[in-house]
């Protein structure tokens, strides 16, 4: 079992569903319910490849919470999955709260799948945490 499985409470490759277990990653559309502590701990010990997996799974979990009960896989296009401008704002707000990484709203269009956005977030997170903010 790798670190992203424990962060998001579901095996890699499964469609992320809303988490009713009260975990730190669960959101009930309340910013106070978003606690990135477990995510930051997992990212701190992860390799670059694991960090990308963790971010991809985090994107999938947050998107599944917002678009429930839609099945979300790594290559699900956000807009084709039903993401609207309002839910895109919610997704970016949730991800920024969890990761402490600034995410421009246009990133949802430029990186339009969980795999693409996860890759972007992993690179941005690494840049922010190494002090290279020009990359983020």
From TrEMBL:
Keyword Phosphoprotein in annotation: yes
Comp. bias intervals (Polar residues): 1-11
UniProt-listed InterPro entries: ACP-like_sf (IPR036736), PKS_PP-bd (IPR020806), PP-bd_ACP (IPR009081)
Keywords: Phosphopantetheine, Phosphoprotein
Domain Carrier: 49-125
Location of the region described as Disordered in the Swiss-Prot/TrEMBL record: 1-30
Superkingdom of origin organism: Bacteria
Record-linked Pfam families: PP-binding
Protein name: Acyl carrier protein
Native source organism of the sequence: Streptomyces luomodiensis
Source taxonomy: Bacteria, Bacillati, Actinomycetota, Actinomycetes, Kitasatosporales
